[in-house]
Predict the structure.
Amino acid sequence: MWIAVLGALLSFAAAAADLSGIWRGIYTSSDGRHHRITFDLKVEGAKVTGTVAGTVNKASLLDGKASEDEVDFWAQWPYGRFHYVGKLRGDAIQFTVQAGDYKSEMTATRVSN
């Protein structure tokens, strides 16, 4: 039984660790403009830290959490607070991004570990 518990814990840690790295995607804002976004994610256990950067600004991640193949964090941009919820799918994270009442989907692909 202890081996099964240890195996489950190790697989959880490995899945969460797969979220660490640099990811890039294109975000479509509420006015229809496209913005290149770069995520630099660092996962330690269930905690996620790092940054999210656009073409002009960069923001630190706030309240970052990871569990298995999912990530959840906030970023405070000069133009508002954004909530990012993502699910790992191979070498991509499928994000739902919410800013106020506006919600959008985006995919970020891994650039490096």
The beta strands are 21-28, 34-44, 47-53, 58-67, 70-77, 80-89, 92-99, 102-112. Residues 2-112 form a domain with the Lipocalin fold (CATH 2.40.128.20). The helical segments are 2-17. The chain has one domain: 2-112.
